[in-house]
Amino acid sequence: MPRKICSEKACFPIDAIKRLVGYYRDLKHLKEKGVNVISSFSLSEILGVSPEQIRKDLSYLGEFGKRGVGYDVEHLIKNLEDRLTIVRPSNAVICGVGRLGMALMGYAGFRDLNIRISAGFDVDEAKIGMEVAGIKVYHLRHLVKVCKRIHPEVAIISVPASYAQDVCDRIISVGVRGILNFAPVSLSVPNDIFISNVDLSVELGALLFCTRMGEAGGAKG
Amino acid sequence: MPRKICSEKACFPIDAIKRLVGYYRDLKHLKEKGVNVISSFSLSEILGVSPEQIRKDLSYLGEFGKRGVGYDVEHLIKNLEDRLTIVRPSNAVICGVGRLGMALMGYAGFRDLNIRISAGFDVDEAKIGMEVAGIKVYHLRHLVKVCKRIHPEVAIISVPASYAQDVCDRIISVGVRGILNFAPVSLSVPNDIFISNVDLSVELGALLFCTRMGEAGGAKG
DNA sequence: ATATGTGAACCATTTCACAGCA
DNA sequence: TGCTGTGAAATGGTTCACATAT
Question: pTM for this structure?
């Protein structure tokens, strides 16, 4: 993934986008709790992000607040849904129905973003034809055929590392332009394809290193 | 998590640490394939990171290459294991043995970093006493007692969002200083605790947004 | 009075360019 | 000559400070 993303109109940092998606989710929780108006300062405490950062992030998408007052929660949610294109539903597929793949098929959080997991793929004959969380599992050899019907916008790769590049290539060949990769390898893709790596052992390894370094020194940030 | 981490000797960026852990993993694959010496330029193609970036990242930990030649793969691996403290084994625990928690208990990648998942915790009586991938599941109410025996350095939180802060507090109370959080909420922790959030729907949502923006514009980075 | 929105200042990381060494 | 290691320059995200609006 690049560090920032641009259209003709504007550029903004990927990290800002991720934070904004997080704001959206937490704002929905706030609304359920009956909060109608909130300032960037109060939001700051809930989100663990500075008020200036929140305001700057929101300003990438437009002006949604009232000066001297704050943000109308519902209005802000609606605008985030619109600008982040959450209103527009999407299909996704999962390649690799192992333990992790199955967990992702049942992950409720995707639905909140209007993302529907429409199919799973695996090579294990025992799994073909199964339904996991209401999602049908197909053989990987039918990937192209099934995807031509489903038209997934994004794909999740949760196959073993050694299969990942092959699956990745085939996913791209059916027109998928965004890939969330859980396989612990660096995949090579054309530079019009977005690939985001969630590397669990890298995360845990880096965390462990930090705590051990912290023992002797301390974090500064 | 802060942006950088410091000891008395040096400071370096968290992102560099994460990349280094990734280099370590990919170098081990390379070694298995019989590669003995490699330049930062060849590594660049495999890792998808620029040669300068690789050299700079490595330079945070020391000087491991031979000018005019490249890096001895085995020598580099040994040094990374040493400097990233991967040689030193660690225990971790997982709080929340749902679908995701179970997947993580069986995740092979942790073992490659000498990280051992030593216990799982849940509140579901049906799961208590179970073994998942050889790891015993305890009731959450015994968290403190079991952790005092195991001495985990890091913990993984994969409980529902509403339980996460409570579990987090208790984990910290037994001396854990690093937390990998999968619950989709911002947790508040003292600032000597390292917490890394893996937010699956945020990742997928941001990815989707990028592909949709990319349709009209294009990535620059 | 209060809180937003934003250009400017700041600061960290990435990239560059080249000195240093095999 | 070839590739590493690293100060210096550039890039770009975050923080600051304040003008602006209610």
Answer: 0.96
